[in-house]
Amino acid sequence: MVSIYTLTLSPSLDSATLTPQIYPEGKLRCSAPVFEPGGGGINVARAITHLGGKATAIFPAGGATGEHLVALLADEKVAVSTVNAQDWTRQNLHVHVTSSGEQYRFVMPGAKLSEDEFRQLEEKVLAIESGALLVISGSLPPGVKTERLTQLIRAVQKKGIRCIVDSSGEALQAALEPGQLELVKPNQKELSALVNRELTQPDDVRTAAQELIHSGKALRVVVSLGPQGALAVDGSGFVQVVPPPMKSQSTVGAGDSMVGAMALKLAQGASLLEMTRYGVAAGSAATINQGTRLCSLADTLKIVDYLSRS
Ligand SMILES: Nc1ncnc2c1ncn2[C@@H]1O[C@H](COP(=O)(O)OP(=O)(O)OP(=O)(O)O)[C@@H](O)[C@H]1O
Ligand SMILES: [Mg+2]
After folding, report:
1. 274: Cβ–Cβ under 8 A, 6 or more apart, which residues?
2. Cα–Cα distance between 30 and 194 in angstroms, integer?
3. DSSP string spanning 15-76?
4. Minimal CA–CA distance to 156: which of 187, 200, 176, 126?
5. Is 150 exposed, middle or buried (0-12, 13-18, 19+ CB in 10 A)?
6. How far apart are CA 76 and CA 38, in angstroms?
7. Pairing relation of β-strands 133-137 and 162-166?
8. Ligand 1 in contact with 276 (CB < 6 A)?
9. pLDDT digits (tens, 9 = 90+) for 4-17
10. Cα–Cα distance list, 242 to 137, 203, 232, 286, 307 (Å)
11. How far is the CA of 255 from the centre of ligand 2 (A)?
12. Is the CB of 227 under 6 A from ligand 1?
């Protein structure tokens, strides 16, 4: 079985709380916060663990918030490999206003990552065994230039490590630069920004994804389409997977669950269709859950079963 690692350059310690009403100036009394690990690659590793697989999350951890993050991952039995960072790991805040049902998500800038800390993370990923999968997911922290990401991917690919990327904007563009990514998962908006044009028709999405394949940027492109599922393309064709109609509670964590599920299937040598079905099922399973924000194995398997029969 191929090993899976994830790299998160901008991790977070997420806290969630409830408050009855929101208004300026006065004190807003909140419920006791619930803490959860956050950051793209970290959530991908958690999703893989939820699905019964194994992944090691590589990330910088700084200060007491970094220690808290590591402790939460230990509770969830997610393997970690960290680099000590000077700047404290950022904390994000999610507030649910009970009277209105509104959700407020306060996202802080990522902790600064020095060149030396980046180099230590780079050393860790370069030590991964050839043939393993490395999922690079999330934003770039302040202090890291996009070219450093391009260099890192080039170096790990040279060692035979297969990269999966889920990012956006300039970081996504930089990650595609070396070419031959094992898998890239933009949503429609991210793909549109990447190819620098609007993608209004389903055919437009397919054409844009095929361009990435034909130009050698990636071996597989899965474009996630929210409630419409996903369109997947590789060198030999394309598949479309549409989830069953369902009542979605919260779409937070859908993308990370999808990427985790697809990494797991790729590690098992699954086909494009099988991988995409499992990814869509896990993404949709994450939206059913209000408690934990990632997919559960039971819900994922139920949806996979539906997709295999439809
Ligand atoms: N409202 C929904 N109903 C059912 N399934 C959904 C819904 N939203 C997302 N999904 C599932 O999750 C997958 C990924 O969702 P989406 O396309 O929103 O990714 P994303 O934009 O990267 O999400 P994120 O905000 O988590 O990064 C979809 O392919 C789909 O299977
Ligand atoms: Mg996403």
Report:
1. 265
2. 40
3. EEEEES---SSS----PPPEEEEESHHHHHHHHHHHTT---EEEEEEEHHHHHHHHHHHHHT
4. 126
5. middle
6. 13
7. parallel
8. no
9. 999 999 999 999 99
10. 24, 16, 11, 15, 8
11. 5
12. yes
- Whether 87 is catalytic is no
Interval between CA 2 and ligand 2 midpoint (Å): 24
**Which ligand has an atom closest to residue 188 CA?**
1
Angle formed at CA 156 by CA 277 and CA 89, multiple of 5 degrees: 80
Percent of the chain past pLDDT 90, that is, above it, reads 92
Taking the CA atoms of residue 284, residue 307, residue 260 and residue 285 in that order, the dihedral angle to the nearest 10 degrees is: 30
Tens digits of residue pLDDT in 117-144: 999 999 999 999 999 999 999 999 998 9
H or E segment to which residue 176 belongs: helix 169-176
| Domains of the chain and CATH, by start | 4-8+39-85+112-309 (3.40.1190.20)
What are φ and ψ of residue 237, in 5° steps? 160, -160
Amino acid at 100: S
Residue with tokens 């979605």: 248
Asked if 54 contacts 77 with a C-beta cutoff of 8 angstroms, the reply is no
Please give the structure tokens belonging to residue 67.
């220690």
Q: Which residues surround ligand 2, an ion (CB under 5 A)?
A: 255
231 lines ligand 1 (CB under 6 A): no
Q: Does any ligand 1 atom lie closer than 6 A to the CB of residue 228? A: no
Give the chain's length: 310
